[in-house]
Specification:
Helix content is about 0%, strand content about 50%. By secondary structure, the protein is mainly β.
């Protein structure tokens, strides 16, 4: 029983930065992982980053390592995705997802997640 709401998307020039937020409600401690996915038009949903609430470990897709950072504010029940050095290839709808179980090997698998937000659009211009 977790609800997720993303915000923070928008238009940005290449090289710029955005910070996405994922606000969680319900039993916010019931999820073992929160992840960010993205989906560009005509493409499959792609895992971007994951935060494990069990051990505090973070995971990143190779395409965003060194540029994106996931973090959490427990008091605000919010997970963030700081996106720096944005590229046009980062343009997509970004989704927040939560899993009720933990598996480090499955963090990038969309079907593994139990809850999803509505998505927020990120557009990076060249």
């Amino acid at each position: 029983q977790v609800q997720l709401v993303e915000s923070g998307g928008g238009l940005v020039q290449a090289g710029g930065s955005l910070r996405l937020s994922c606000a969680a409600s319900g039993f916010t401690l019931n999820y073992y992982a929160i992840a960010w996915f993205r989906q560009a038009p005509g493409k499959e949903r792609e895992a971007v980053s994951c935060f494990s609430t069990s051990d505090g470990m973070t995971y990143y897709a190779d395409s965003v390592k060194g540029r994106f950072a996931i973090s959490r504010d427990n008091d605000k029940h919010t997970v963030y995705l700081q996106m720096n050095s944005l590229k046009p290839e980062d343009t997509a709808v970004y989704y927040c997802a939560a899993a009720l179980t933990w598996s480090s090997s499955a963090w990038s698998s969309a079907p593994w997640y139990d809850y999803w937000g509505q998505g927020t659009q990120v557009t990076v211009s060249s």
